[in-house]
Amino acid sequence: MGKPGERRWLPRRRRKAVDGPRPGESAVLSYYGLGLTTLLLLAIGLVMVFSVLSVGLAAEDSHKAQEIYRYAVFPVVGVIGALIISRLAVRALKRSWFLVLAAGLIAQVATLIFGVDINGNRNWLYIPFIGPVQPSEFLKIGLVLALGALVERFHGRLAEPKVLLGAIGLPVVLSTGLVMAGGDMGTVIVLALIVAGALWIGGLAKRWFVLALLVGVFAFAVSSMLSLNRRTRILDWLGIGPPDFMGTGYQPRHALWAIATGRWTGVGLGASRQKWGYLTQSESDYIYAILCEELGLLGGLLVLLLFLAFGYFCMRIIRRSQDVFTSVTVGAIACWIVGQALINISVVLRVLPVLGVPLPFISRGGSSLIAVLLAVGVLLCFARSEPDARAALAVRGGAVRRTLAVITPRRRKHDRS
């Protein structure tokens, strides 16, 4: 609550809307909605990843069997981490932004020095007994928390050049610069979405976004011209020059064939043809094509609707929040997860050129999956802090415990008899 006569802050999208909780609406809808949406997307992702990796089992590849067992650990670690973060106080998240961001930046520097190249990008760091880790995924969490804390601290002064280009611009430039030095253009675009979402919710003037868009398009064009692989992908996407069916155009065309084969209801779970060595990135960047092939257009639309529902619950937290840090951080995470999903799906559908961005919750990738689940934990922490939400959750939790206390003795008595 602000001081008497003080104008309370409102996010840009809420200035003409009804502010705060509305009469009669549920206080725990955001919490349970985010949790259920996340679990559904995670379940679909695990089914699709195991469906693709089952090709190795059919070929009696013992290495693939070990990959399946090892991958099953990542969602468990991510869910446990999300539950722990969801129980933290909002002020604890606010105070931890510098440590989380510093750890991410240090890990990214170590990646540039000691990292390994995968698909032309130096964005992976090998850790003994764990395997390859992608620090840029966890750097996203640090940048999200940093933007939330800094926008709150300098709110009302965002348009000042020393604030926008100095205090806020420094962590942004360091994060994007280190990731770009590793050659991962897709992650840089996602980081740009995070920054745009945070500053938009924070109330930055529109002219700054127009300027940033022009600079970003110019930087993307220059970096694409300097990279032969990236330039070839864009030219193939634009249809300029002879088609390269066995090179850069191989994956996009097989992805479209997979989607066309699936039609409305799909060929059946596990019955994909393209995953048998034709679509070589079927478990990562192009897993949405396999999903549409096996589950059809209806399955693809279901996944898209789940991501839109995820974004709706994020916007609901923003509308009901009265805290700058909460609103800005939630806006940044929403742009990260939903924006990354839309980019991945657009690439598969040939709406965008190949950018190498995984589909959150669905694509195979331990670092990406854990980082996204930890971000969901941050969202659940904010959802628990909504007006009346903590009290409502405590009441429901107490009712569940009382029910179990009544049922358990009867069950034990029945077992003894």
Question: What does this 3D model show about the protein?
Answer:
It is a single chain. The chain has 417 residues and is mainly α. Helix content is 69%, strand content 3%. The chain contains 16 helices and three strands. The protein has a three-stranded antiparallel sheet, with helices on one face. A hairpin with a 3-residue loop joins strand 2 and strand 3. The longest helix has 34 residues. The radius of gyration is 23 Å and the shape is globular. It starts with 28 loop residues before the first helix and ends with a helix. The N terminus is likely disordered.
**Structural class based on helices, strands and sheet pairing:** mainly alpha
Distance between the termini: 59 Å
**Number of helical regions:** 16
Strand order of the largest sheet: 1-2-3
Q: How many strands, what sense, and barrel or not for the largest sheet? A: 3 strands, antiparallel
The number of distinct β-strands equals: 3
Choose one word for the global shape: globular
Q: What is the radius of gyration computed over CA atoms, rounded to a whole number of angstroms?
A: 23 Å
Helix-strand pattern? HHHHHEEEHHHHHHHHHHH
Q: Which range best describes the helical content: under 10%, 10-25%, 25-40%, 40-55%, 55-70% or over 70%?
A: 55-70%
Strand content: under 5%
Spans of at least 5 consecutive residues with low confidence: 1-8, 13-17
Mean pLDDT: 83
Please describe the structure with a list of short key phrases separated by commas or semicolons:
disordered N terminus; 16 helices; 69% helix; mainly alpha; globular; 417 residues
